[in-house]
Task: structure prediction
Amino acid sequence: MAPPAKMNVPFLDLASLHAPLQAEFDEVWAKVTEANAFIGGTWCEKFEQEFAAYIGTEHAIGCANGTDALELIIRALGIGPGDEVIVPANTFIATAEAVAAAGAVPVFVDVDPATMLITADGIEKAATDKTAAVMVVHLYGQAAAMDSISEVCEKHGIAIIEDTAQAHGATWDGKKAGSWGVAAGFSFYPGKNLGAFGDGGAITTNDAALAEQIRSIAFHGRSITSRYHHDNMGMNSRLDGLQAGILSVKLRHLDGWNADRQRVRDRYEAGLADLAALPLVGVHERATSVHHLCVVQSDNREELMAYLGERGIGNSIHYPVPCHMNDPFKKWAPSIAPVVTETAAPKIMSLPMYPALTDDMIDYTLEALHDFHAR
Ligand SMILES: *Cc1c(COP(=O)(O)O)cnc(C)c1O
Result:
């Protein structure tokens, strides 16, 4: 049994993040509603420009959510039935879902045991003459090893699609995640490092023709030159003006918030250094992580999670069931077993991680983690 909770440490706290910005949010609401700019329009265009500049790409295209962003890229590249797309087995289900939604086959590969990210080696082993693209997922806020991945993909003619849903602002060798591949998909789900007040997403790319194709598909396949003609089989995936306005306000604070996440991470790292039973999933030295999540591995996870819960400390798992072990994906069983992913799945768990987490809350959490292992 855990001692009674003395503090409440939620897993995530958006209210504290938003409170100081309330007046700016109110202004967005007033202006967007006054202008009736509900879908697309001024606020979307402004946010798209700001976001492209932030990531360092020529174009950004707003869409309805991160899953659509990925599907739009795959479809705009003409990838579909008969094509294979390599996907890390350790990722959120949406990565694989987008591949399947486009009619392509997800080919699951294993990840690096230190970072839990996809590697050049994993891609190379899974490459066939049907491989059209790879979903490089910058999971947990880290950036994947983009130099070696780019090299191997160039060698095999594989398009790099980045899933940057958890890594707004992360870098590899100083260059931002979301600016390496042919295109990248971002999510603005409220809990992401940059989150809207509902669903939202974006695609970044340097390819003008691809950007146009994505815009068309996202808007019912509409022709760029004639609004009554539909050149492509499309879908409806657009960003709301209200969400774009909120995102512009929040984008100005993203770097500051990411720096706060680094403070949290540093304190966890220092505090866990003497606890060999609870290793942190590491960050590569050539990468900067934006620490979307703080993931540790425990041989006694279920008990530890219950113990933390009793002490008022939130926790979660990302992700307990590897993609390929979920029913709808079982038909695409990987030919090489993703042993690292499958071994880690029952051990990984996520500690509270967000900019408003105070040093006192982190210390309280660290104390609980030590108490649990001293029992
Ligand atoms: C959140 C997330 C997505 C999907 O984004 P939505 O906006 O929820 O559709 C895709 N990939 C990863 C890795 C994610 O974390």
Remarks:
- The chain is about 40% helix and 15% strand.
- Residues 65-67, 91-92, 94-95, 137, 139, 163, 165-166, 187, 189, 199, 201 surround pyridoxal-5'-phosphate (CB under 6 Å).
